Amino acid sequence: MNPTRLALYYAAYFAVIGILMPFWPIWLEGKGLDAVEIGFILASAPFVRAIGSPLIAQVADRRGLRRPIIIVLTASATISFAIFNYIDDFWPIVIVTILFFMLFSASQPLAESLTMHVVRNEGANYGRMRLWGSVTFILAAVGGGYILEGRSVNIIFYLSLFGLLILFVTCMFLPKFRFPADADKGFPILKLLKIKPFVWMLIAAALIQSSHAVVYSFSTIHWKSIGFSESLIGILWAEGVVAEIILFQYSSLVLNRISPTMLIVIAAAAGIIRWSIMGYTDFLPALFFAQVLHGLTFGAAHLGAI
């Protein structure tokens, strides 16, 4: 039962991302923002995630709580996201973006903690729970593209808000585990940073994931500018996640044969190939191939780091 509840959470969480990641830049462009402003806004999301998520996770560790904090974070994120409907100027959008992504992003690592607890104690398969997030990402990206075609970009806001409300409902059904409270009043991250293999893993994974930034921020805008339809753009986003699903489906088999370190190396090598292709051509078959490599550039790096 717990794996099913977590799978539902992943499904709802990544459905929201399946709308925001491909289409949020179009919504920002529709607000009259230029490329520099859009880049600044989208860059603020990983920045606040890197700072806010560890701090919120530390609060959760000290209280031994996960589910109640996830519920509060998701409710707060939904409320903050609703504010986007009432603002149009650059700096208000920046402020609300920082608030929203700090709350929204911080809940997912806590859910991962619940998931790993279920994996260790109930023998559940991590990949099979996580893959439902990939499935709904595909459905949201492809479906969102078809829904957006010929309609106002404001539909992106309403689809995302609806997804957040569904996510909040799934949070209510998360497992009610109580973890031992962490009595350490210091900063646990400082202890981890003294472990050299962890530091190298962190650097490698961060570099690989950050290499996706331009694609996440501007690929949709670029593809739209060269004449790709919203539905085709949704398919381009979705087909890379199909490869990710396959990897997560067979994650146990993969990890039995390939070490986490080698998975990160494979992800880096795939990234060199993928970004080289996407940097030099808009030829559609080449883009389809490059997007399939997302299963390695993101999926293998994520699996290796986890």
TrEMBL record:
Keyword terms: Cell inner membrane, Cell membrane, Membrane, Transmembrane, Transmembrane helix, Transport
Membrane topology: Multi-pass membrane protein
GO cellular component: plasma membrane
GO molecular function terms listed in the Swiss-Prot or TrEMBL record: lactose binding; lactose:proton symporter activity
Keyword presence, Cell membrane: yes
Localization terms from the record: Cell inner membrane
Protein's name in the database: Major facilitator superfamily associated domain-containing protein
Annotated ranges, domain Major facilitator superfamily associated: 5-306
Pfam family, one: MFS_1_like
Transmembrane segment boundaries: 7-26, 38-57, 131-149, 155-177, 198-219, 231-248, 260-277, 283-305
Location, primary (coarse class): membrane
Keyword Transmembrane: yes
NCBIfam families assigned to the protein according to its UniProt record, in alphabetical order: mfs
